[in-house]
Amino acid sequence: MTLYITDLDGTLLRSDTSISEYSVNTLNSLIESGVMFTYATARSFASASPLVSRLRLSCPAIVFNGVFIVDPRTGKRLVENTYSSECQQMARELFITENIAPLVYSYINGEEKVSYLENRLDEVKSYVNSRRGDKRLRPVSDYKALFEGDIFYFTVIDPRDIPPLDKIFTAENGFSRNVQKDTYDDMIWYEIYDKSASKANAVRQLAEMVKADELVCFGDNNNDISMIRSANVGAAVANAVDALKSAADIIIESNDKDGVARYIEKRGR
User: For the whole model, what pTM was predicted?
Assistant: First the structure.
């Protein structure tokens, strides 16, 4: 059985973050016929689920670049690939020493929160403004409050100086990182998670969970490269970055031309 896994932004989602009627109808029909289909995204479940709400997904989904595998209907965490306490402490020390104000994703009293320094709002304004009303947002006054809870992910938006980050956030120190331009603007996102977490690792975990014997993955950006290389068939949409196209087995139509749905419809199970 083939498992189809697609990235969201720039891949399944069109340039305006919507999914076309054709893709919704085609994918729902395929799912109902027994095709295993889901998504793997850097987004959180809270951010991703409204965008794919019209799809009748039942296969577990991958969020936060592989940190969690979740039930796509409830967001219940089925698999967790999270930091050790040592990694959390190492990251805290680096951010404080270098005076960096990251977005900090954590669970506090069982609730997912995204904390940021309120006096450094300008550094994360694009993120906060795009998520107005999000109950996860948690402005705080100091570093002590910023690093509260069970932390599982950090994001630095448009870092002023990347080398100090690269020196600490290495596989040898227990980290994975992804650095790329945002799909919708030119801002650089420097995302940091545990070394056990990646889209590649998560798609392999998921394939084993659902007993798939073939993996077909779709992507458009740098954080999809490991997933594309891990798949039996790695597909880059026509609008993908050059690095991903070079890693892919095939190039399909763009996100704005329903490339993912058209490919799966043609290929079938």
Answer: 0.88
